[in-house]
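Transmembrane protein: structure tokens wanted.
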Amino acid sequence: MILFIVFGLASIIGGAVSVAANVASTGATVSAASAQTDAGNSAINSLSQQAQSAIASITAAASSPAANADARQAADTAARTVARASWFSVAALLVGAVIALGAGGLGFRHQPAVESGCCASSSGYA
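Answer:
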């Protein structure tokens, strides 16, 4: 469950960075277009400033120490959970080995007498 949460947070952060990059690209395109037309439209300038402020706020939120600390804590929790699950897997393998040894020993003891060499018969098994 923790891995899904970490994956979801990474996806959200990646999506936010992608949106910031798209906004930055759009802002650069808008500012380049406004510089080429030299019309001096205040609407284009205000949109460019809004895009730049949105990029700055998203970048600040993504790189804040609190976000880094939360991501690190989630990663540590996920690592502990995976480590615990791997130890349970090792324990299950050991239990399975003990059961396999016991079942193999019981199966070996109950083999027919023909294979042990005593009481040979003419049935073709010997």
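The mean pLDDT is 75. Residues 79 and 104 are 37 Å apart (CA to CA).

Cheers.
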